[in-house]
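At this stage, I put together a protein sequence along with its fold in token form, as given directly below:
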Amino acid sequence: MMVSINRFMKPKSPPATTSSQMEADRATAPARAGSKLTAPPRVKIHSPIFLRKGANFIQISADCTRLRINYSKAVRTADNGIKITCPDVETFRSLNKYLVDFKDQFHTYALEEERKIKVVIRGIPADFPVEEIKADLCDQGFPVLSVHRLCRRDGTPLWLVLAVLPRTEEAKNLSQTLNKVCGLSGIRVEAPYKKGRPGQCHRCQLYSHASANCNANTRCVKCLVPHWTRDCPLSYDSEEKPSCVNCGQNHTDNYRGCPKAPKFISKNRPNTKRSSCATAPPSRDLVNFPTQASKKTTPVVNFHPALATPPIRGQKRERSNRRAPPRGRLRKLNAPPPQGRRCRHPLSQVHRRLEKISKW
């Protein structure tokens, strides 16, 4: 069945809008025009877990499937380990607990919400006990977890104290609100000094992680025996030389010149000082400056410079900054020498004129 369309029929008018609809559109129009496109929220990446070389990953993966620990990805690392990434905090904690219970060797990093705040309090005398400093900070309302006295390498205590606090609002405001410790004023709160290079684990002696998040076997910093450094019988006065567990050479593991230590070049502090052991330039003598080999040159014979050619009629001359010589001079230069005519010297003409005058 065909339906014919009447071309002369008037089109239907659009439905009339009510006043309430018009007011609603006017109210929402500025909001729509002024709205800006916001970027999607950034995906938060949680701390990965690094399994050490030799871990039975097949058994770990099977147990994770059985225990419903659904990690995101597992890839091999450069040192023949395995890096496991977790999608959320619950999966990270479940996998961490499983690896600790089954005594698998791994290391990881602390979660952002679990990381502690560390501050250095400067100006506290060395004879103040750290227990009383901690008790005084807690009485002022700061949730201090621990307080440590900073010392030099030789064990001499400094007037510096390191305070460790949880990540709370009170701890973040410590540097602005703290002005007195144990009744002593004139103190100063600073952030801990960062060396600018990767840290070293005091448990396994590897780099780029801390011992608090390491579950690997303990290794001594002085010898090859697997025990804690504090239990090592070697001392500075012992005859036996230390041994590095990372490279096997006769030095401690924390030696910066170790070939396994990461090389770090500071970009924020360029070395502007001149080196004191710079080599002096060699003295100038015939040994340091040998004679150069003579170059072969061909002698120039019968060389005549080319003369400028006169302009041709009907041809445009190219303009240049150099001034052209006058035409008369150019003609004299280009004219061939006269043939059959003897050229006289101008002094000979003067002598002839003087002879004529004397005859008169």
About this structure: Residues 197-261 form one domain. The first strand starts at residue 49 and ends at 51. The longest helix spans residues 19-34.
